[in-house]
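Weekly structure sync, notes
Attendees: PL, DS, HV (note-taker this week)

Item 1: lysozyme
DS walked through the input record. Source organism listed as Janibacter melonis. Sequence as pasted into the shared doc:
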Amino acid sequence: MRRALIATAAVAGLTAVAPTATAGSAPTPEPTSSARSAGITEPGQAYMGWRERGTPLKVGQLDQSTARESGVTATVSGIDVSNWQGQVDWAGQWAAGKRFAYVKATEGTSYKSPSFGHQYTGSYTQGFIRGSYHFALPDRSSGTAQADWFVNNGGGWSADGKTLPGALDMEWNPYGATCFGKTQAGMVTWIQDFVNRYKARTGRAPVIYTNTSWWNQCVGHDTRFAAEVPLWIARYSTAAGTLPTGWSYYTFWQYSDTPIDQNVFNGSLDRLRALATG
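Item 1 (cont.): predicted structure, written out as tokens:
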């Protein structure tokens, strides 16, 4: 997806920039072959949905009839970006009907996106309701440490009605074993530590971004998170499909990566503002 985006950056009004790890950071294991095929060649380049499969929808294909078939009565369109997108044409995205955005801030406990500042500020200035996300590396450090790194480097929250709670990106490991070398019980504990620390620091539970296949394999069927954590489901199709155990509905759905990651909020603009306000 990101390789294709680089080739079409001019069309999308984006400038692709290769991410780099912060100076002095600990080395991350080399990307796997599948990660390399997705354009991830060094630490920090992981992005939401990097290993999603299926036939991505084109922009505009998720129309209201499709939304109704998926059980959604009102939706708000949005995007997510990382350092791969560089300078984003926020005015162009607004004109295309997008009203919210998530921006990658951090990865593990050593990477900060060099594009985060201008992407986060630019989306806010344009009028977007925006939030930040953290790409989790559970084999690198504790959930508590990564929550602190995230909050300290852009992942905070404020009740201004324009800032969404931070999102925890839990998905395929681009640098090694699928489940980061953890048992399901160990992964549950890691996520719980992150959620607890993020909530203690910000007063809000984070959103969890994941896909059902990875979650079932690596987290299992523990239902504790569904009670307080909003779900951001990744599935590139005309329907969100089966959700991870415990969640009866999703809050966000990433349904395509063409020509940039496409998302919908499961509700009206007023409900999105309510989520931002807390």
